[in-house]
Protein 1
Amino acid sequence: MEGDIAEMGKFIGAGLATIGLGGAGIGVGHIAGNFLSGALRNPSAAPGQMANLFVGIAFAEALGIFSFLIALLLMFAV
Amino acid sequence: MTTEGESSGFAIHPMDQFVIKPLFGGTEIYWYTVTNVTLWMAIAVLCIAGLLVLGTRRRAIIPSRTQSVAEMIYGFIYNMVEEVTGHDGVKYFPYVMTLFLFILFANLLGLVPTSFTTTSHVAVTVTLALMVFLGVTILGFIRNGIGFLSMFWVSSAPLAVRPILAVIEVISYFVRPVSHSIRLAGNLMAGHAVIKVIAGFASLAVVSPVVVGAVTAIYGLELLVAVVQAYVFTILTCVYLRDAVGGAHH
C-alpha cells in the first residue's frame, strides 16, 4: 500500500490496537484482585499460590501482547 | 521511525536507545559483527560467571553476602522447578537456571544509564523462546512418544466438543513462543521508552523537578519489572516443560 491515506490508516490502526491493552489491564487486575481477596481470607495458603498467580497474570497479559503485536505489524510490516 | 525522528518534537527520541551499532566502526551489520548487543550480552555473562564463581569460591558455612545471593537465587529457582514441573523435571534445572540468570542480568544491566537493553530486542527473546519451544516439543516426543499428541485431545471434555478444543489447543500451542518472547521484549522496550519520553519533558525548565521525581519513580518500577519478567519467563518455561515431562501422568 502507498500514499498518505494508507500511511494515516496505519497510524490510526496502530492507535486503535492499543485499546487491547485495556482488556489486558482488566484481566490482570481481576486476577490480582481475586488473589488478594483470597489471600486475605486465608493468608497461610497465599505463598503456595504465588506461582499460579504469576502464570495466570502471564496468560491474561498474553492477549494484550497480541494487540501490541498487531500495532507493531501495522507500523513496521504492512 | 528514523525519518519522523527530527520532526517529532522530542528532545531525546525515545527509540534511539534501541539502535544497534557496530562497536568498531562501519555501518553494515553481518552476523559476525561485534555490536553493542554483543558487548552487553558478554557483560551479562561475565557478571553471572563472576557472581557464581566468586559466590561459591570459599563455600563457607556462614555465607558471605555474595555467597548468600548466589545460594538464594539457586534455591529459589530449584524450588520453582521442583514445585511446577514435579520431581522428573529437576533434571532440566540447569537450563532453567541459565535462562533465568541470563534474562535477569540482561534486564538489570539494561537499567544502567547509557547501557543497552539486549532483551528489549525481539530477535534476542525469540531465540530464547524458540529454544524453549523446540526443546519442549522434542523432549515431549522423546519422553512420551506419539502419546505427547494426546495433550491436544482433551479427554475430560464431552466427545462432541473435543475436535473444536483440539484445534484451539493446537493454535494455542503454536502461539506460545510468540507470547513468550514478545512479553519480555515488549515489557522491557515499553518501560525504557516511557523513561525516555518522560525524561524528554525535562527540556521544559518549569517541570524538570517533577520529571526528575517521575523518572526516579518509574526507574524503581522498572527494577521490579526487570525481576518479575525474568521470573515470568522462567516460570512459563517450567509450565511448558511440565507438559513434556509429566504428560503421561495428567
Protein 2
Amino acid sequence: MSNSSSGNVGIVIVSHSSKIAEGAADMVRQMVGNAVPLAWTGGDTDGGLGTNVAGILEAIEAAWSSAGVAILVDLGGAETNSEMAVEMLAEDRRARVVVCNAPVVEGAVIAATESSGGSSLAAVKRSAEEFYA
Amino acid sequence: MSLDRAAREKLVRALAASMIEHAEELTSLDQAIGDGDHGLNMKRGFEAVLATLPGLADKSLPEMLKSIGMTLVMKVGGASGPLVGTFFMELGKALPEAPARADLVAATDQAINAVKTRGRSEAGQKTLLDVLVPVQGVLAGGGDAGAIAAEAAQAADRTTPMLATRGRASFLGERSIGHMDPGSRSASLLISAAVAALEFEAIS
C-alpha cells in the first residue's frame, strides 16, 4: 500500500491477488509518479486469494482525496466487497467514492492518468469505463 | 418467540457448527463451478463469529444478528461475506426483540430484498436467493419447522439443473448446469440449523 497527498482523485486497486493489486499499482506509479493518491489491497484476511472489506476500507483511507476516490476491481467478490466498504464509509465520504466498471489493470492506469490531469471523479470514472467499452 | 441468553448462544453455535462441519462439502461444490473457497470462507467467518462469544449472546436478538452480520462482512473474504452478512444485518435491523411469526415474515422479506440489491440479483440465477426466496414463501405461508427445513433442502437441490447467470459460476455458462450452487447449499444448511436450534414450532 502506498500513498501520496494531492488534490487529484485517489485510485484504489482491489484484486483477489495481492500480487496483481501491487503489480497494477506499480504500473500506475510508472505512469503518473506521485501525482495521484494510490493504494492497493488484495487477498482475504488469511492472506489467501480473495478480497476483504477491512482491507478495502484501509485502502480508501490511504488514497483519500477531497476530490474523491475511484476503485478498480477484478472479479465479482472484489466488486461486492468494495460496494459494501463504500456503504460503510461516513456519509459525507460515501458520495465521493465510486467503483468503476472497468478492467482492473487497464482501468487503474487510465483512471490514474486522467486523475493526474486534475479531472473530476466523474471524468476519471468515465475514462476508465469508456476505454474498453 | 423470546430467546433467552442460552437460546441465543445455542443458535449461534448451531449456525457456526453447520458451516464448520460442512466446510469441505461446500468447498468441493465450489471447486466444481466456482473458485473453490466457499467452504473455507464460510468456516472462517463463523469461526470469527464464535470468537465473539460469550459477549455476542449477551446482546439482544436484533443486536446479536447485526453483530453476526458485521463479523461475516469483515471476515468471510468472498462475495458471500457481504451477501450473507447483509442478510443477518438486515434481519437484525428489522426484528423486534421478541418477534412473532409476522415479524419474521416481514424481516426476512426485507433482508432478502437487501441481498438482492447487494448482489444486483434475483431468484432464478443460481444463487443463494434460490433458497432464501422459496423458504421465505413457506415461512409466510405458515409452514412449520419441518416444512421450512424441507423446502431449504429441496430448493438447494433445485439449483443443480439451473444455469448460473450471476456470480463466478456464470463464467462457465452451460457447464454450470448439473452442479448444486454452493451458496444455495450453505444458505440451506444455515436455515436448517436455525430452525432446529430455535425449536421453531414454538413460534406462532
Protein 3
Amino acid sequence: MSRLEERYRLVLRLLPAAYRQQWEDDMVAAFLDSMDNDDPETAAYAADYGRPSLAEVASIVSLAVRLRLGGPDAPARSYAWGQAVRLATLMAALTHAVMVTASVAVALWLSGKIAWLPAPAPAWALTPSGSIWHTAWNLAGYAWLPAYIALVLGHRRVAQAVALLAIVPPAVTTAVEQAATDVPLSVTPWALRLTDVVLVLAMAVFHRDAPPVPRRPWLLAIPIGILLVPLPLFAIQATSQAPRLLDWPGLSCAIVAAAIAVHLAGRTPRQPARTLPWSLALTLLAATTLALRIVTLPDYIDQAQRTTLVTIAATEVIAVLTMALPLARRAIRALRRLPPIPADAQWPTTRTE
Amino acid sequence: MKPCRPSRSRLALYLVIHYIRWMGSRAMTEPAFFILTALVDAPRHGYGIVADVAELSRGRVQLKIGSLYGALDRLVGDGLVELDREEAWQGRLRRYYRLTERGRDALAAEAQRLAANARLASTRLSGRRNPITGPAPS
C-alpha cells in the first residue's frame, strides 16, 4: 500500500464503518485512478509524497457530515445526532439574532431616535459616530439576524455567508486594537469569535437530506426571546449595578441552565426518544458554554473586582453542571436504547429526486 | 361538549403527505443527472464516471471522489444504477456500474423536464420585443 493510499484511507476513516465497508475500496481505487500519471517518475513521487487535495478532503468531510448527522432516512442514531446539532445550531443562532435585534432597539432609543419613548438618562445617551464607514463596520454584528432568518428559511449557504459578515469585522477590530494600542491582551473576544466560527461550520448540518426547519415557531422565537432575555436584562441593568458583572459567557451559562431546567421540567418521561434530540442539543450547548466560561476566566486576573467575578463565574459553572450532568446521563441512556448500526449492514440511502 | 381535536391518524396522514410533498419537490441534482448520462452508453467504473462527467459538462462539473460516491450511493439505493461487474486492474479492484431501466426512465423524464424548461425560455426570448429593432422575426 503506497503512502498516498494510506493517507487517503486515513481521511476515509471520517466516514461511518458500515459505509466504509461498502464503499471504501471502490473510493480508494477511483481516487488512485485520478492520481495516476503517464510519467512513471511523477507517479512514483505522487505515490510516496502525494496527498489528497483540500477539495478531495472537503468532499469527504461533507459526505461524513451527511452520513453521521443524517436526515430522516439515516439510521436512528445518526438522525438523533443530526437533529441535535441542528437544534443546537438554531438555538445558538437564535440567541445571536435576539440579542442583536434587541440591541438595535436599545441603540435607537439611546440615540434619541424613538421619540415616543421617554428620553434616556444623559449618562446613557449615545453620540452617533461621525464616519459612515465606522458606523457600517459596527453594524456588521447585526448580520446575525438575517443569517438566522436565512437559516430558518432553508438558505443555508446564504446564512453562512451573512454570518461571516458578522464575524470578520469584530475580529479585525479586536486584532487591530490588541496589536496597535495599549489594550491588554484578552481571551474573551477570540473565544467568542471561535465559537461563532464553529457555529458557521455547524450550519453544514442543514444539508440536502435534513428535514426543513419549522418556520413559524423558530421565527416566532425571535420576539418571544427578546421579551424573555434582553428586555428584562436591560431593565434590570438600568436600575441596578449588579447585572453589569454578567458578561457574555456568564449570560450564556444562565440562558443554557434555564433552558435545561425548562426542558427537564417539561419532558415526557415515557418518551425519552422523542425528546432525545433536544436533550443532546442542550448537552452540546452546555459543554460549549462551560468551555467558553472556563477559557475566559484568565481575563478576570487584571480586573479590580476579580474575587467577585471569579465567585460569580464559579456559580455559573456549578449551575450549568448541576443541570447538564443529569440531562447528559439521560440523553446517553436514551441514545443507547436506539438500535446501533451493524458494521456489516448495507448503509441506508436516500432519494435522488 | 368535547373540544374538537385532530385524531392521531389524521395527524399521521398530514405528516406523511407533507413528507412526500417535501421529497417530491426536490429536483435531481446536476451531478446525479450527469452521472446517469455518463452511464447511458456503457458501464463505467468510479474514475471513468468522473472523467466522462467532466467531458460531458465541458469541464464545468468536476466531481470529487466524496461527491461522486455521495451521489452514487443514493442512485444505487434508489435502484437507478446497479453494479455491473468487478475487474482487477493494476492491483486495484474496479467496480463498474450500469444504468438500470428505472434509471433510464428517470433520466429521460429529467431530460424532458429540462428540455421543456429550455423551450419555454427560448419561446419567451424569441417573442420579446427589441426596443431598437422591434419584435423578433418569427
Protein 4
Amino acid sequence: MRVTKGAKIATGTALLALGVAACGGGGGSSSGGGENPRAASGTVYIRGCEPQTGFVPGNINETCGGTINGFVYSRLVKYNSDTAAPELDQAESIETTDNKVWTIKLKPGLKWTDGTPVTAKNYVDAWNYTAYSPNAQLGSFWFGDIVGFDKVNTSDPDGPDGPKEAPKPETDKLEGLEVIDDLTFKVTLTAPVAVFRTKLGYTAFAPLPEAFFKDPEGFAQKPITNGPFKFVQWDHNSQIIVEANPDYPGPEKPKVKRIVYKMYKDDNAAYADLVSNNLDFTELIPPSALAGDKWKADLGDRAIEGQQGVIQTITFPLYDKEFGGNADFRKAVSYAIDRKTITEKIFNKGRSPINGWVSPIVEGFKDGACGELCTYDPAKAKEYLAKAKAAGYTPPAEFPIWSNADGTHKDWIEATVNSINQAFGPDAGVKFVHKDMPTFAELRDTITQHKIKGAFRTGWQMDYPHIENFLNPLYKTGASSNDGLYSNKELDEKLHEADTATDPAQANALYQEAEAMLQQDMPAIPLWSYGLQAGTSKWVTGVKVTPFGELDPLSIAIKEA
Amino acid sequence: MGRYAIRRLLQLVPVVLGTTFIINYMVWQLPGDPFAGRCGQRPCPDSYVTAMREQFGLDQPILLQYWNFLKNLLTGNLGTDFNGVSVATQLADAWPITIRLALMAVAFEALIGIGAGVLSGLKRGGFIDNVVTISTLFLLSLPIFVTGYLLQWVLGVQFGVIEPTVSDAATIPELIVPALVLASLNMAFTARLTRTSIVENLRADYVRTAVAKGLSNRRVVGVHLLRNSLIPVLTFLGTEVGSLMSGAIITEGIFNIHGIGGLLWRAINGQDYTIVVPVATLLVLVYLITNLLVDLLYGVLDPRIRYE
C-alpha cells in the first residue's frame, strides 16, 4: 500500500490522540454483597450540585451552595428539622425588651476548625463585611434593619445600568453592632423587628473567622468553619467532601464520618444511583419516577415524604392597565383554577392546594386566609368576570401567563390556563395562554424592569420559617420582591404594626390579619405548596429532611450490618 | 502535500477569528442580564451586579471585550467563570473525559458500523443483510435518550451488570456502555453508508479487473474494494468526532459523566460566557482539524486524489 508522507503524519496524529485519551483514569467505587459497604469507611454519598459561589455565607443565595454550607457553618439559631421552630444553636441567649435592641450571648468554648475560639467579634466582623457595599455580597440586604446600614451600603443612584457610580460608603462598620465582651454583642435595629430572632438562622448571619479577612478568595475555596462538619475538599463540577468535626459542641453529634456531596447534572441519573444503592440520599425525585407513584414502588420504606416551605403563585403586573386587571377580574381567575385536580393530575399529589399566601409549615400560619376565593367555582368565576367588566375593565383577547422555558413549568401552566378558559367559557372575550421566555434570567429581568405583558408565575421559597417572610418582602409597598408593584396603605400599616409588636403571639395575629387583607385586591393568586419527596439507600437510616427541603446532616446514620 | 497542509492550517486563522467573533457577539446579544437570574425571586443587590459587570468587563464596548478575549486566549489566561472558578482547570478536567468518550464512540461506529456494512453489502439480499437492515432501522428510530435510559435501567438498576452512573475518574471500562449509547445512532448510519458504497463499487471496473487477474477474494475486498468504499464513510466519521464532542450533552447527563457537554449546558443556562466562548472556540478548532485530517486521509485511500 502506497502511503503518502502527509497521510503518515495524519494517521500518526490520530493514533497519538487515541493514546493520550487512553491515559488517565483511576479506580471507581463499587457496592454489593451482604455487608454494608458504608460501614468500613463511615462515608455516605448524597446528591449535590455545583455551588454558584464559594463558602462565604454572606454571599450564598442558592440551594446548591446553601445545602453544603449548612453542613459546615453553625449560626446563632437553627431550625428544628421536625417542627421548623427556631432553637438556639451557637447563642446561649438572645434577649430583648423592645425588639429593637438585642443582646446576644454566645455559648462558651465554641471553636473554629483551626482551633481558634468563636467570639462575638467574629460575628460582628462577618456582618460588617457582608453589609459593606464595596464587598458586593449577595446577602448584604439582610442587614438593612440594623442602625447605620445606609452609611455602609450605598446604592447606585441610577441603578447598575446607569452611568453614575455608587458613592463610597462613609464607613465600613455598622453603627448598630457593638462588641460588649468576647462572648457578647449588642445589635441595635432602626425599628422594632418581631422576627429578628427567627431571621438569625439564615445563612447570611453566620460568623467568619479571623483567617477569612486575610484572604477572602482563598478562604471561599477552602474555608475554616464552625459547624458539625468541616470542609475537606472541593472538586469542581464533581464533588465536595466534608468530614465530621470532632470539636462540634452541639448535643447531637454527627453520626457519619464523612459526607460526599456528589454532583449530578440530571435528577434521573441520581435517582438511578439511589435505586441501586450507590447514592445514599437525594431530595429530588425526577418527574418520571413520581408519575403513578413509581418511586414508592421502587423505594418502599426508603421513600420519604414531607412538606417544604415553598409556594407557587401567579402574580399580576398591577402597574399595567391592560394586564393588571381589576380586583374582581383577579378574583374571577382565582375562582377558575381547579387547584385540586391540577395537583392530582400534574403533580401526582406532590403539591397541595393552599388557601392563603403563606406556607402551611411556618410559624404563624392560619388556614383559610384566602377564604372561598381560592376554591374552584366556575359559576362564581363567570359572575366575577361579569362584575369586572361592568366596573370598566376590558380584558385583552389574549392573556398570557409567563414562565421560563428552562424550568419545568409548562405542564402546570397549561393545565391552569385550560382550567381558566373552561371556567370562563368560550364567549368570555378573553383567552388565557401560556407563554415562555427562554431563560429564568430573562424572565426575572423583564419582571424587575416592570415591562412584562401578562401575568407571570412566581414562587416563594422561605428564607426562614415565619409568616412574616411570606408577606413583607412580597406585598409591602416598594418591597424587594413586590414584582407586581402592589401598594396598599392599610396593609402597610398593619404589617408595620405587626413588625413592631413586642409580643410574638400578638405579632403573629397581626400578620394573619394582614394576610387576610390580601383578599381585597388579590395581587397574587395562591396556587399550591410544594411537597417534599426524597429517598435513601438501604445502607443508611434515621434520615430527616428539613423544612427547607435539605438533608439534616446530623440525622443520617449508617445501618448496623 | 506539505504545502497543502500548511495552507490549510493558515486558513484556520481567519476562520477561528470569524467564528469566535460571531460566538462572542451572539452570547453578548442574549437578552437578560446574566446576573439578574442569580438571586431567585429577589433582585440582586446593585453593588453585586455592578461589581460583577466590572470584573468580567461587561460594561465595556463589544469590540474591546472581544479584543480582551483574544488577548487572554492567546496568552492562555482564561480567567475565572462567574462562579469564581478557574475556567482553564474546568476545561482541563472535562476535556480528557469527553475526548475519551467521543473517540470510543467513533471507534465503535467504525468497527461495528463498517463491519456490518461490509458483511451486508457483500451478500446483498442475504440473511446477514436483512438482519443488519432491520437492526439499523431499529437503532435509527430510537432517540439517544431512550437507548441511554433503557440500558442504564436494565443493565445498571435491574441486573446490576454496570454501575448506573460513571465515577469521576471515568475509566475506559466504565465508558463502554455510554460510548455504545452515544454511537448507536451513527453506527446505524455508518453501516448503511458502507453497505451502499460497497454495493456500488462491487460493480466497478477495477474490481472486475482485480478478480480477472486472479487475486484472492480477501485481497479484492480488503484492498481494492474497501479502500475505495471508505471515502464517504470517512467523511462522515470525521465530522462525527466534532459533533460527538459537543453533542454528548444527553449521554453525559444520563450517565453523569463530568465532560464538556455538561459544563457547556450549565454555562449556557447561567449565561456564563466565560465558559461558553472558550468551549465553542475549542469545538471550532476540533471541527477544523478533524476536517483537515479527513482531507489528508483521502490521499491514503485513493491514490488518484492529489493535493495541489
